[in-house]
Specification:
Blueprint: H1 8-12, E1 50-51, E2 54-55, H2 56-60, E3 62-65, H3 66-71, H4 93-111, E4 115-119, H5 120-123, H6 130-151, E5 154-159, H7 178-197, E6 202-205, E7 211-212, H8 220-241, E8 246-249, E9 259-260, H9 265-274, E10 281-286, H10 287-292, H11 297-306, E11 310-314, H12 333-345, E12 354-356, H13 367-394, H14 396-404, H15 411-417, H16 423-433, H17 444-454
Bound molecules: D-xylose and nickel (II) ion (2 copies).
One nickel (II) ion (NI) binds next to loops.
Binding site for Mg(2+) 1: 250, 286, 314, 357
Keywords: Carbohydrate metabolism, Cytoplasm, Isomerase, Magnesium, Metal-binding, Xylose metabolism
Protein name: Xylose isomerase
Length: 455
């Protein structure tokens, strides 16, 4: 039915290749030597290699994101567009959207990402009314259906952009005006349904404007209640339409608003609990957001896993010297290895994936830079996964942790946790036994040395 919405010729018209790479990048192993004909091949990303019993492709579930790679134009607060993509600037916006889709799926084919992610406004231009915006989106959806069918690329998640348009400047769900809440709800309904029809594995909510600048104009208590209601509506609708994907919140402490309500894992867990949603909603964690919240990525993953709400990852990297979301492609092997070690300890990435929510630097203006950035990041993650596999298989780290806590398996440890002790009985026992705890080394340096050995 949707096939008739866009004539096939519109999205298959030859436009000339955008990238100088023509064939999908191959896996050639660690001995690969680049040549002029083949400047890049995967040295570690061997998608069929088994890692702890699962294909590497299924352990990593890479996704390329639409916004940074095809919408981003290199602007920064002080500079105009530097990328000058042919689908940017003046021109028929729908024709540009179709051109963009062609290039996007060509990139996915070249680098071999099994998934992609998008916001509604990334893929189709906003219309004069929500109805018109939705119609445009529907036309792109038909194009996506066909391209996904042809290439086998799947949708990791969809999301609604509830932050760019000025109507959202004071928030979407947390806006003082219920009309804005209603508009945001209508937008999310549409994108959630689109994500469902496209077989998306997750749906993400990142609350860019769900926060505030100053308490002088803000009723914080009301805004939190509004946000809770909004999330309940999303979960209700998910069940109503039979969407089996995960609903994911993406925590971030600040930027664009100063105080964002979805600050970090701990904060979001409290929010979910308060709204009875801790079994319905999980988290999409981003390296750069963890850093901005004063945590490392491993902490956020481990905490989400301990609380039963780990869902997916936005794989990027922040600059530790800058206090904003620089969204760089990952390239630090030990850092990514420790991240993936936590993912493996959490039981794997599950229905989530590793989404490259990462952007080229403003001066990386060549189309091929998109290929290099993604492919290098994929190979780096693959290499890091192999390091993490060694950490798991060797087991020395895990054994150390087990030994460190083994006292809790003693009769006293068990009795405490099972609620069989009170302050009184504990005090009595300590005195009666003349108990004096014996400190033990936690051996951090030895463990750090072990980690370097795996790398
Ligand atoms: C912004 C967020 C955003 C989400 C999707 O900092 O990372 O890109 O991933 O809305
Ligand atoms: Ni993100
Ligand atoms: Ni981000």
């Amino acid at each position: 039915m949707t096939q008739t919405l866009v004539p096939a010729s519109m999205d298959t018209a030859p436009r000339g290749a955008y990238f100088s790479f023509r064939e999908p990048l191959a896996f050639r192993g660690e001995g690969f030597v680049p040549t002029a004909e083949e400047p890049f091949a995967y040295r570690f990303y061997d998608k069929n290699r088994l890692v702890l019993g699962r294909r590497m492709e299924d352990q990593l579930r890479f996704a390329a994101c639409y916004w940074h790679s095809f919408v981003g134009d290199g602007t920064d607060p002080f500079g105009d567009a530097s990328f000058l993509r042919p689908w940017h600037g003046a021109g028929d916006p729908m024709a540009q959207a179709l051109h963009k889709a062609d290039v996007a799926f060509d990139l996915f084919r070249l680098i071999g990402t099994p998934f992609f992610t998008f916001h509604d406004r990334d893929v189709a231009p906003e219309g004069a009314t929500l109805r018109e915006s939705n119609e445009r989106l529907r036309r792109i959806e038909a194009v996506f259906e066909r391209k996904m069918d042809q290439t086998g690329v799947k949708l990791l998640w969809g999301t609604a952009n509830l932050f760019s348009n000025r109507r959202y400047m004071a928030g979407a769900a947390t806006n003082p005006d219920p009309d804005v809440f209603a508009y945001a709800a209508a937008q999310v309904k549409n994108v959630l349904e689109m994500t469902h029809r496209l077989g998306g594995h997750n749906y993400v909510l990142w609350g860019g404007r769900e926060g505030y600048e100053t308490l002088l104009n803000t009723d914080l208590k009301r805004e939190l209640a509004q946000l809770g209601r909004f999330l309940n509506l999303v979960v209700e609708h998910k069940h109503k339409i039979g969407f089996k994907g995960q609903i994911l919140i993406e925590p971030k402490p600040a930027e664009p608003t100063k105080h964002q309500y979805d600050h970090d894992v701990a904060t979001v867990y409290g929010f979910l609990k308060a709204n009875g949603l801790e079994t319905e909603v999980k988290l999409n964690l981003e390296q750069n957001h963890a850093l901005l919240a004063g945590h490392n990525f491993e902490h956020e993953i481990a905490l989400a896993s301990a609380l039963g709400i780990f869902g997916s990852i936005d794989m990027n990297r922040g600059d530790e010297m800058l206090g904003w979301d620089t969204d760089q492609f990952p390239n630090n092997l030990p850092q990514v290895a420790l991240t993936l070690y936590e993912v493996l300890k959490a039981g794997g990435i599950g229905q989530g994936g590793l989404n490259f929510d990462a952007k080229l630097r403003r001066q990386s203006i060549d189309p091929d830079d998109l290929v290099w950035a993604h492919a290098s990041a994929m190979d780096l993650c693959a290499r890091a996964l192999l390091v993490a596999e060694k950490m798991v298989q060797d087991g020395a780290l895990q054994r150390h942790v087990q030994t460190r806590y083994q006292g809790w398996d003693s009769p006293r440890g068990r009795a405490i946790l099972q609620g069989e002790c009170s302050l009184e009985t504990l005090a009595r026992d300590v005195e009666a036994e003349g108990l004096e705890p014996q400190p033990r080394s936690s051996q951090q340096e030895r463990l750090e040395h072990l980690v370097n050995g795996y790398i």
